[in-house]
Design a protein that fits this description.
By secondary structure, the chain is mostly helical. The chain has helices at 17-146, 148-163. The relative contact order is 0.02. Keywords: Coiled coil.
Length: 164
Amino acid sequence: MDFIDNEISNDSNIIPYFQYFQETQQATVQDTNLQAQQDLMILSVIEQMSEQMINHVNNYEKANKEQKNESITVELERYKERVKTFEQRLNIDLSSREKMIDSQMDDMIREKLALKEQIDSLEQNLSKQNLKEKESFIQNFLVFKMNPKEKEDKNREENELDWK
């Protein structure tokens, strides 16, 4: 636009510079205030959305953590059950083995006692036999000592009968 061609026909449309400056400043301040209010409103909305997002993320993490804790708890319970089952099996195995070993030990003790009884019986028989042999030997000795001649004759007769 060319301002040179404009003519001023009267003074009614001319305003002093001071008035113009104040009006433009107020419009700028009002325009700036309106812009600031819009910016504050946008910032408030962004802040609310951020808070909602943070809350949502926190809730998700909390739920995820609880789910992991539940999963870990369930797995721990499963392991506890496995350990309990294993211990029961081990106790059963040990118990059956202990019973088997006890039974074998009882059998061995019985066999040992039976063998000891046999040995004692054999010792008694041997002792009795030795005693009888000793007595017989002593009698023979005494007989030979007292009657060597008679005994010799008697033994000869027995030997001769045995040879016939």
